[in-house]
Write a structure and sequence with these properties.
By secondary structure, the chain is mainly α. Among the domains are: 48 residues, no CATH class; 81 residues, Glutamyl-trna Synthetase, Domain 2 (Glutamyl-tRNA Synthetase, domain 2, Orthogonal Bundle); 107 residues, Arc Repressor Mutant, subunit A (Orthogonal Bundle), CATH 1.10.10. The protein has a 3-stranded parallel β-sheet with strand order 1-2-3, with helices on one face. A 3-stranded antiparallel β-sheet has the order 4-5-8. A hairpin with a 2-residue loop joins strand 11 and strand 12. The longest helix is centred in the first third of the chain and has 22 residues. Bound molecules: glutamic acid (GLU).
């Protein structure tokens, strides 16, 4: 009877009487026949069952029938089943991407499943195009899911709006067990309660004496329904906020929280579930093992734990991810949708930031030991790294664009020129047709340019984005080089010694090795009054017009219009001596 008392403590007049009688039976007549007790409990249960049928006349499917459609997954021991559960309420941001990325990695490395479930239960906040943005965002960063929305999968449907019958069946079951009830309170009544609670600095919500509709009799419910009054279904919380529960968070460690005592809404007026209710049911049916989500959900955990308990589910393991932050004017703040374009995942593609660079950065943020591992394992890919919750940051995680750029530079320095070329081609096809055409026309030239110093011990790191490819290589393309003389040579105010340049053109030989070429310049420098080494020049600058470095700089300036370029010898070979002559003329005029 104690059990009965806790769980099914009834409040309606009729039911209360049944319960009191039941208590009397059990306490006074210790030897009361079981039959009597069952009869009385049945009386209460019958009332709840009737209530459930009244509220959900169209829900014929039972919870047992639903559960049978979601058998245990056949996976290896230790496999993680993770999910990405976005709500299509806006654009996809890097925080979403970060969570999805880690979830997918953890599933992959444990031989598990990563699935996509679209949590579209809040139609008021839904935005057109948001779903496509999610799918495009995942695709753009190679975050592939094993099953879910837009794909096959035995544990669907994966769009919550297509699962309403399922949630209602569970709600019906809870009502029929006296664990949930219809609440007819109007929005005004709730708002009044709220302002009173705010005034008295009480916890906000419908609980304890505020939960007046817990007490409605079946007749009262019927009267409301006959009247056409709208209602929500609330959980009849069995909790007590004086009790403490522990969230064993896989990232943050144990967090102590008060037990939930709020009669949380589980089905809204339109019969659509709240996030709290829907995700608990889905995670159970889809056999999620690990939930990774933003740490803004930590305070809701007691509700979720309680929902799992009243529904008789084994809760998943939870890992709450700290939000990504940004540094501005020396201060750390949360990302802002309005102020920070880089918060949207769509920003990266357009900015020409390679997806692999972003993935590498997400991995760097996700596990503190990733960066070192990546630097030491030049030939490995992200998939080879073992991610763990223990190495995840517990507090705000700084998302630093400069750091991202550096990671991209390293990434570009490690892959082949052909790969860069092909990926960049895709980018320019979409964003800059003019340069795309040049890339196609001068493919070999560009690949040779990208190959300069690529295989050296300290490869070039001048490219962080696809955009940089155009900026860095523009001068190898005649069409871009000759656009505007003032623009091309804008940084060059060097005095050019044409005697040296003319002589250089005379001695240039296409077949010279780099050493031969450099020796040739040395001899030329000396002949023309320049020191063949910087050291000699420094010993007595009055003896020379300049040094070999100045000769090279003159050639570089005329050839490229720049003061800083990769290896000059290689550039001369790519651009060619005839073109060098043209450029000298272009500069002169
Ligand atoms: N739909 C929730 C959101 O977009 C997901 C939370 C979760 O992953 O459980 O915030």
């Amino acid at each position: 009877m104690i059990e009965f008392n806790c769980y099914l403590l009834p409040h309606s007049q009729v039911v209360r009487q049944c319960a009191l009688t039941a208590l009397r039976v059990s306490s006074n007549l210790t030897g009361a026949t079981k039959l009597d007790n069952y009869f009385l409990i049945d009386g209460v249960m019958t009332m709840y069952k009737e209530l459930a049928d009244l509220l959900f006349p169209n829900i014929k499917i039972t919870v047992d029938e639903i559960e049978a459609k979601y058998p245990l997954r056949d996976l290896v021991d230790g496999a993680y089943v993770t999910r990405f559960g976005p709500s299509p309420t806006g654009f996809m941001h890097v925080g979403n991407l970060y969570g999805a990325f880690i979830s997918s990695m953890l599933a992959k490395q444990t031989g598990g499943i990563f699935y996509l479930r679209v949590e579209d239960t809040d139609s008021k906040r839904e935005k057109e195009g948001a779903l496509d943005a999610i799918l495009n965002g995942l695709k753009a960063f190679d975050i592939d899911y094993d099953e879910g929305y837009g794909k096959d999968g035995q544990y669907g449907p994966y769009l919550q709006s297509e699962r309403v019958e399922i949630y209602q069946a569970y709600a019906k079951k809870l009502v029929s067990e006296g664990k949930a009830y219809p609440c007819f309170m109007s929005e005004e009544e709730i708002a009044d309660i709220r302002s009173g609670q705010e005034l008295r600095k009480e916890k906000i919500g419908i609980y304890g004496s505020y939960a007046v509709d817990r007490d409605l009799s079946l007749d009262e419910v019927k009267a409301h329904l006959d009247n056409g009054d709208s209602y929500v279904i609330r959980l009849k919380s069995p909790g007590d906020s004086h009790n403490e529960i522990i969230l064993h968070d896989l990232i943050k460690g144990d967090i102590s929280l008060p037990e939930n005592d709020i009669d949380e809404v589980i089905l809204k007026k339109d019969g659509i579930p709240t996030y709290h209710f829907a995700h608990v049911i889905d995670d159970h049916l889809m056999h999620t093992t690990h939930v990774l989500r933003g740490d803004e959900w930590v305070p809701s955990f007691p509700k979720h734990l309680q929902l799992n308990q009243v529904l008789g589910f084994k809760p998943c393991k939870y890992a709450h991810i700290a939000p990504l932050t940004k540094k501005e004017d020396g201060k750390i703040r949360k990302f802002s949708k309005r102020k920070d374009p880089e918060f949207a995942v769509s920003y990266y593609e357009e900015a020409g930031i390679p997806k692999e660079g972003v993935r590498l950065y997400l991995a760097t943020l996700a596990n503190t030991n990733f960066e070192e591992w990546y630097l030491q394992n030049k030939d490995k890919s992200i998939e080879d790294f073992k991610f763990s919750f223990k190495k995840m940051p517990t507090g705000g995680t700084l998302f630093d664009m400069e750091k991202l750029n550096n990671i991209c530079r390293t990434y570009f320095s490690r892959i082949s020129a052909e790969t860069i070329y092909n990926d960049a081609l895709e980018y320019y096809k979409k964003y800059d047709k003019e340069f795309y055409d040049l890339m196609v026309k001068d493919k070999d030239k560009l690949i040779s340019f990208l190959n300069i110093e690529r295989d050296s011990k300290r490869p070039r790191k001048d490219i962080a984005t696809y955009k940089d490819i155009k900026t860095e290589s523009a001068y190898i393309f005649n069409d871009l080089f000759y656009k505007d003389r003032n623009e091309t040579y804008k940084d060059i105010d060097e005095k050019i010694d044409y005697d040296v340049i003319n002589k250089y053109i005379e001695i240039y030989r296409d077949f010279d090795s780099e050493d031969e070429w450099y020796n040739g310049i040395k001899i030329l420098a000396e002949e023309m009054g320049y020191a063949p080494s910087v050291k000699m020049y420094k010993e007595d600058p009055t003896l020379y017009k300049g040094h070999i470095g100045d000769v090279c700089e003159m050639i570089r300036h005329l050839l490229t219009g720049r003061v800083k370029t990769p290896n000059l010898y290689q550039l001369l070979r790519i651009i060619g001596i005839d073109e060098f002559k043209n450029r000298v003329e272009f500069y002169k005029n």
